[in-house]
Amino acid sequence: MSADQLASGYHVQQTIVKILYCSRFDFEEKYKLNVPAPVYMDYAAVRYFAAVSDAVHKSSRFELLHFLAIDAQVGVNGKIDVSTPSKDYSGSLLPEAHSHFDNGFKIVTFYADPDALLRTAYVLRKDGWRDSMNLYQRMISKSKIEAIRTYLKKQKRVFINNIIVTLPPEVQPLNKKLETVDSATLKQTAPVTIKLPDRANSIGIVDGQHRVFAYHETDNDDSQIALLRVQQNLLVTGIIYPAYLSDIEREKFEARLFLEINSTQTNAKSQLKQAIGLVLEPFASDSIAARVLSQLAKTGPLQGVVEQYFFDTDKLKTSSIVSYGLRPLVKTGGDDSLFSIWAHEARDDVAAGRNDEALAEYVTFCVATINRLLVAIRKNLASGRWTTDRKAEKRVLATTYVNSFLITLRLLIKGGRSLDQADLDQAFAGIDNFDFSAYHSSQYKRMAEQIVDIHFGMTAEALS
Fold this sequence. Notes:
Elements: E1 20-22, H1 29-34, E2 39-41, H2 43-56, H3 61-67, E3 86-94, H4 96-99, E4 106-112, H5 114-120, E5 121-122, H6 142-155, E6 163-166, E7 173-174, E8 190-197, E9 203-207, H7 209-213, H8 223-231, E10 234-240, H9 247-262, H10 269-280, H11 285-296, H12 318-330, H13 347-351, H14 356-379, H15 399-414, H16 421-427, H17 444-456, H18 460-463
Helix pairs in contact: 2-6, 9-10, 10-11, 11-12, 11-14, 12-15, 14-16, 15-17
């Protein structure tokens, strides 16, 4: 880039230059580690930002800057504001005795204009670009945004239910003397002033993202919405965490709160509970299964064929595989689980629900063992059958068949059979002739019993 390509009015030293690398196809993480300077926008991130920008248009720019790791102020007409301004809001602080939250939590309510929230808020969406297993909020819905926007233009009034947010640690409720108010000493709700920093990506929306982003800014901005964006006020309930609370405990608190708010919704209920379970109960069988499937989707025979993102179609459904195939296989008990053959000094810790490092090693063991079985099956199938494409003749990558393969592994473990790669390769010779079409829907176990009978000489009666 040459200096004459920069916007006039800015000095070259005020410019932040980022190298953005986009690829349609995934490639190994080691290449990114070898060349760390560029910002890697993988295809999933491209699709994510395409969907977000299609729904909220110019208001998506703050999150995009966050993705690019640009935290500096963006210049306007040649001016870059280097200060960190804040805006005052009148609100109320709830006494700890009335909130029934743990000691140190501060709960404040205040009214804020949508414009301020759009410029400062972020949402930790499950289908987003952040590399974390502790994300569970749903992808933003363009149709829901447009429906709320239509309502706003027609009725010209706000929704009266509140937006739930987490506030940055520097935000404290202040009294008239601008002194921090301690909610533990209060006996009744007290008026306070809330100073919100005018800083992008500083306020986390736990619930209410659609009601906030319905006020988004477009290229040719809607004059009615533009006026409502600064005129109207949304009722906000803000949570200020105590200083002692760790990041993990914060994530657990938000997950519990989100689950409480959304517990009555039926849409994507199983996926929601599985995602939140990863945060609240990482040692539960469901959570271990979800982690294992996430890794299977990235390496081995199931790479690229498991639903991971909101835009994935014609891929294996995760909730069914987690619930019916993986959960019984990875449980930390029984004589038919991978745990029963995992030789590790910290087995008792994992069974007792402690030791995160050992849990990660158990997940790695599960992934490696499952992949050995799947590799043996795949290499003994005719070319073209290992696909989720419904048009492919005699395809074997369907939820029913994958769950049956996982139950097959359970039966082999219970029967004490060798799980070495060479032995599995030999045992599954001829699997190409197996009549997969004879099994449908939830006939997982019957199909697995037939596989071990034909290929391992193990009858269902012998395993009972």
